[in-house]
Amino acid sequence: MALKMYKPTTAGRRFSSVIDYKIITKRRPEKNLVTILPKRSGRNSSGVITTRHQGSREKRMYRKVDWKRNKDEVAAKVMEIEYDPNRTTNLALIQFADGERRYILAPDGLAIGQKVNSGEAAPLIVGNCLPLSAIPVGTAIHNLELVPGKGAQIVRSAGSLAMIMGFEEVYVLVKLPSGEVRRFKPNCRATIGQLGNADWKNINLGKAGRKRHMGIRPTVRGTAQDPRSHPHGGGEGRSGEGMHPKTPWGKPARGKRTRKRSKHSNYLIFQRRK
Fold this sequence. Notes:
Elements: E1 3-5, H1 11-14, E2 17-19, E3 34-36, E4 61-63, E5 76-82, E6 91-96, E7 101-105, E8 115-116, E9 129-131, E10 140-142, E11 144-145, E12 152-154, E13 162-167, E14 172-175, E15 181-184, E16 189-192, H2 208-213, E17 269-271
């Protein structure tokens, strides 16, 4: 997918760019596969802000994506490619032989009319979902499970892919987009191919209003705040940080490793990310 530029008719248009959505074939989502997405504005069930700089986004509907791909040995046909406002990659609407429809993430190269399958006997083509034990070394994958049967949790953003690096006695080694090589159980499932919409990272929003419509509020520098709100705050006039960079809660913000040494999943990391 390519980027689309507009004539600079306004200051906001001058530098803005959008994705050229020629690949999108359906504008309205499937009614049976959407639900209301409530606005939480970064707050938990107690009303306390747990994720800062969120709020005031446009109304959205949540698309129910099939993360498990557990309908084995039943071929499905790709009906439509749709835009999803809740994620960076596009969705593909598939229909099984019994008439059931589901959403899956659309990998690069998936075409309308193509057949997709899931299960250990599925062929190694883009869009098919298989257990890691059935995928050969060097294959690009996405939509990867951490716990077998729980559904895909990682490698789900636009343009991302992981790579099968090898096999141990009871684990499969997978190189993640961060560069980390991690051990996975052989019955964890993944989908073949690289996710599409890779040009998403090259978009220039052009103006602050587009960011606000997305529900992202401004971020204030720590040095511009008072000392009660941020470790970098305070001082007479414009003052520097005066210390190593910290988060608002005093944790090191750059360089220091913050992962716990006693974390229960440390044994699954074969090689740390760079």
